[in-house]
Structure formats: structure tokens, C-alpha cells
Amino acid sequence: MAKFPFYRKKKRLDTVARKMKKRWIYGLSIGGYALLAIYLFYPMLAHPLSRVITYPNGETTGDQWFVLWNLWWIKYSLLNLKTNPFITHYIFYPNVSSLVMSELCPLLGLASVPFQLLLPGARGLTLSYNFLFILNFLLSAISMFILVKALTHSSTSAFICGLIFVLLPVRLLHSIHLQNLTLEFIPLYVLFFYKTLISAQWRNVFAAALCVLLVVWTCLQYVPFLVLLSGFFLICWMIFNFQDIGDKQRILRLSALVVLCFLALLPNLLMYMKTPPVEAPPFEDTLYLAPDLMGFIIPPEFYGASSLLRKLPTFQLLYRLPITAHFTYLGITLIIFACIGIVKAPKKQVLPWMLSAVFFLVLSLGPYLIYNGELHKGIPLPYLFLYNHLPLFHLSRAPYRFVIVAELFLLVVAGFGVKALLEKGKKDSRKIFVFSCLIVLVLLDYKTRPYATLETTVPPIYERIAREPGNFAVFDEPFGLYADRCRYMFYQTTHHRPIWHGMTSRTCFIKRVAIRDQLLQNKNTILPTDRQALHILSSFGTLYLIQHGSTAGEQSGIKAVYRLQ
User: How confident is the model over 386-410, as pLDDT tens digits?
Assistant: First the structure.
């Protein structure tokens, strides 16, 4: 008994030591991911107030402007207009549009509010975008680290899997889509969903439901991913744990999770039911955004050995296809690590994850098989069945995005493979050497150049319009290009006036003005000599007609400004 205080003190010290070690592990992991972020995005970090990230070659589709507008609109509608951010007449004026099914990302918009209040105008908006971009990069790596560490009990393998997760092309080549980069909640949901299956603790149920809620309010298009991955992984898990299917407590936990997830989605469902039908993307878009089967093993442009493969006749056709054809590159290291994991880890432990990965790899191929640039309509795939029979699934126009879920499951299997490789080194020095070699191989496999940036300056005319009193609209032209319409939305974040053009992810009009659609039909510009058109613009309170240079959506300067009243 006299020794009891000593043992209690020793136990307390051991607990403190474990906590300190855990903090050091997470700190070093974050530091490693941060160094990678500095290398990849230093052109943006050097100009955080005036530049945002774009593709490595400097090209832009205009989506950055759309995302910046989303961040601004959340703040402006709630704090300035004090109105519902899901309904607006500030784009497609004078029509009234619903943004329920658009990629509005309300949670990201709310997170950007302090920056916009601190630095009004384009500078604060740009700073908030860049901060959220880097934050999502780091959190995505850490969330994958947490998932793999919880399953493999290996911090080193978890670090490597987190590194691969943020280097995957499907993620980095989406760098201009801030909402699609917000992946940190998906690995955490998978972890808590898995723990709900194997653990009796109810906190896992609430944590999984919270992750669903965060996904709903950051990137709504990932909700179908969660539904499908939960259902299919549950089936795979039950196949290998057949004896546990009848556990009443497990059934109760899963039922509670379904109810909580439904409640998390309920506000969006109610808003969707109150709005007119959403215009579904054409089926041709789905075919265009379906990847090539060879894309799983052939790196996209700017990645790894792509510069060498492009010169080979076998792959020249593949590299002439849209870049989405090989967004789905998995990486040779990831495939090797996963194969080792299947061989070395217990089959009951890894096969549910592997089968789920294979299912989503097939699903990401789209409605028909595309092999080496050739579409095979005689080989329909599961995506086509879901497209035709699953409600709302037809609104998802980019099949390649399902590879995100496949890669997540594959990384769990790969984590066991990396752990097996590291355990071969009996001495610490040998383990460090193997660990360093694996990191070098991963970095070589996913090697890419630092990402270019896009300037976010606004022409001075819009600042003068912002200072002008009164309520009026602005008409920008030309408006035929997608990138131009998105750019005009960004300029709106400075002048704060309704504009006649715009863009939403899924177009849905609550109120349409027929004369507006007739005016703009089959036109790319309105001439200052077109008196009838100018009269229509004036009758709807349009004060400025601004003509821009047309250079595929880049900032090309103002050609002319006309005041209509």
C-alpha cells in the first residue's frame, strides 16, 4: 500500500508523456504538410492580397471568380441586405434565381466574413480565399492522417497516406474550386462511421452526423458520395462480419445516425422542394467529364513522368483528350502500397476497404467505358444505372469526382502496406531510412511544378460606381464566354449592384422576365447604337453599359463605358 502513491504518480507521468508524444507527432506532421504547401503555392503566398491560385500553366476557366463571388455573397446578403442568401436577383437580373443547388458553400462564406470586414473590397476577399485554401489543404492532410493512424496504429504510415491524399491530381487539379477542396470532413466521417459499426460508444454516432452537417454546408455535391460510400461499405463490412449482423445495439446506432443525417440535410431538402425544378446538366457533359481507364495509371499533364510519356506514340492520343480524362491518376506508389497491404494485412480487416475502393473506381469511369481515347457504348457501367434510377443523381455531371472516395478507401489499404514495409526495419535507424525513401518515392511519383496565380485587381470604374448613390443595375459585355460572366460576378463584389449576367452550378429561376431572355438570346454583345435594347436596359433601372476586351475571360481592360440615364 505504501507503494501506491508512487505507482499513481508514475502512471500520471506516463500519461503526460504519451500526450506530449502525441502532440509532437501531430505538430511534426502539420509542419511537414505546411512545407509542402509553401513549395506548391509560394507564388500565391507571396501575394496573399492580390493573387489567387490557378493551374500550373497559368490557364484559368473563370471558376476562381465564381468562388470569390460565393464568399462575398454570403457576407453581403446576410450583413448588408439582411436577406436569404439562397435567393437573389443580383445575378441574371431582373430574374430571381435560387442558389439552393448551386455551390454556394455557406460555411466557407461565413469563415471569410472576418477577413472581408477587416479589409473591405477585393483585397479582403482574396485574403480570405487564400487563407481558406491553405487551411483546407492542411486539414485534409491531417484528417487522412487521423483516419489511417486510427486504423493502422502507425503514425509514419499515416503521415505518408496524408501526403499522398493532398498530392492526388483529382484534388490539386481542383485547386481553383475551393468548395471541392474541402475534403477534410469526409475521412473523419468514414472513421466515425466505421467506429459506429465496431464500437458501442454513442459519441461516434454524433461525430459522424456532425461531419455530414459540415459537408452539407461546405460542399453539397459530396452528400451523395457519403450516402453511397456508407451503403456500399456497410454491405462489404457485413459480408466479412456476418455473425454480427443481428446486433440490436449496432442497428440502433445506425438507425440513429440515419435520422441525424436526415435532420442535417432537412433544411436543404425543404428549400429544394419549394423551388422550381433545377435544370439538369446535359448528358453530353457527363460523357465529357468521364475519365479514360488508362487515366488510373497515366499521370496528367504537369505530373510525374508525364513529360516523358507524352512523347510516346501509345499515349499521345490520351494527352490530347481533355485533362479530365486523367484526373483519376492514382499513382504508382499508392497502387504498390495497396497491393502490399492486401497481401500483408488480415483479409477480414482490409477487404471491405478494398472492395469499396474497386466499386468507386468503376463508378468514377462514368456511364460507358472509355479506353485509350475511344468511347465504348457497348460496355455500360454502374454509373449509367444510377444516373437513370437514383433520384437527383442526374444532377451530378462529373463522374471522375467519385475517384476521391475510391482513393480514400485505397489509402486505408495502402496504410497497412506502408506499415508492413516500415516494420521490416528492426532498428530505428533502418526504419528512418525506409521512411525517408518512401517519402522520396511519393514526391517523385506526384512531382508537379508550383502553381501559378491569377491577379484579382478590379478596374477603377467599379469603385466609382460603388460610390454612386441610388439603386441601379450594371450591364457588362461581351457575355458569350463562361469566363467573362464569372469575371463580371467578381467585379460585382466591388460595385455591389445587380448585373444582367452570371453563373450558377445548377440554374434554377424562381421568377423569369421574358423580355430579358429575348433581349439576350443569340447575342454576345449589345451595340450602343441599338436603341431598342438600350431602352429595355434603361426601363429595368440599368445605369451603366460597360464594354470589355474579349480575351477568354482574363482581365483585359475596359474598352468603353456608357451611362444610359
Answer: 988 887 787 777 888 899 999 999 9
Residue 47: what residue type?
A: H
* Rounded Cα distance, 503 and 510, in Å: 15
Give the Cα separation of 525 and 561 in Å (integer): 14
H/E segment holding residue 475: strand 473-477
pLDDT per position as a tens digit, 361-391: 999 999 999 888 788 889 999 999 998 888 7
Amino acid type, 393: F
Pairing mode, strands 374-380 and 558-563: unpaired
Cell 506514340 found at: 313
Identify the pLDDT of residue 300: 78
- Backbone φ, ψ for residue 344 (5° rounding): -90, -35
Cα separation, 193 vs 139, whole angstroms: 19
Domain locations in the chain?
62-99+458-563, 131-453
In this structure, what C-alpha cell is assigned to residue 296? 488510373
Please tell me whether residue 559 adopts helix, strand or coil conformation. strand
Contact 454, 64 (CB under 8 A): yes
Task: Decide: residue 298, CB within 10 A, 0-12 exposed, 13-18 middle, 19+ buried.
Answer: buried
Q: How many CB atoms lie within 10 A of CB 388?
A: 10
Contact predicate 289/398, CB 8 Å: yes
DSSP secondary-structure letter at 93? T
Q: How far apart are CA 445 and CA 450, in angstroms?
A: 15
Please check the confidence at residue 3 and state whether its pLDDT lies above 90: no
For the chain, the average pLDDT equals 85
Across 148-157, 265-274, 528-537, the highest mean pLDDT is recorded for 148-157
Peptide bond into 169 cis (omega under 30): no
pLDDT for residue 40 is more than 50: yes
Helix (H, G, I), strand (E, B) or coil at 511: strand
Q: Tell me, what's the pLDDT at 301? A: 74
Helix, strand, coil percent values for the chain (each to nearest 5): 60, 10, 30
Q: Which amino acid is at 277?
A: P
Q: What are phi and psi of 88, to 5 degrees?
A: -150, 150
Give Cβ neighbours of residue 14 (< 8 Å, ≥ 6 apart): none
Reduce the DSSP state of residue 473 to 3 states and report it.
Answer: strand
- The single-letter code of the amino acid at 360 is F
The 10s digit of each residue's pLDDT in 188-215 is 999 999 999 998 899 999 999 999 999 9
User: Which three cell numbers mark 308?
Assistant: 516523358
CA-angle at 15, arms to 9 and 17, nearest 5°: 105
Helix ranges (H only) for 364-506 are: 382-389, 403-422, 428-445, 460-467, 482-495
Q: Which of 274, 514, 515, 516 is nearest to 502 (CA)?
A: 516
Rounded-to-integer distance, Cα 42 and Cα 134, Å? 11
Q: Please tell me the distance from the alpha carbon of residue 66 to that of residue 490, in angstroms, as a whole number.
A: 7
Tens of pLDDT, residue by residue over 300-322, are 777 766 656 666 666 665 656 66
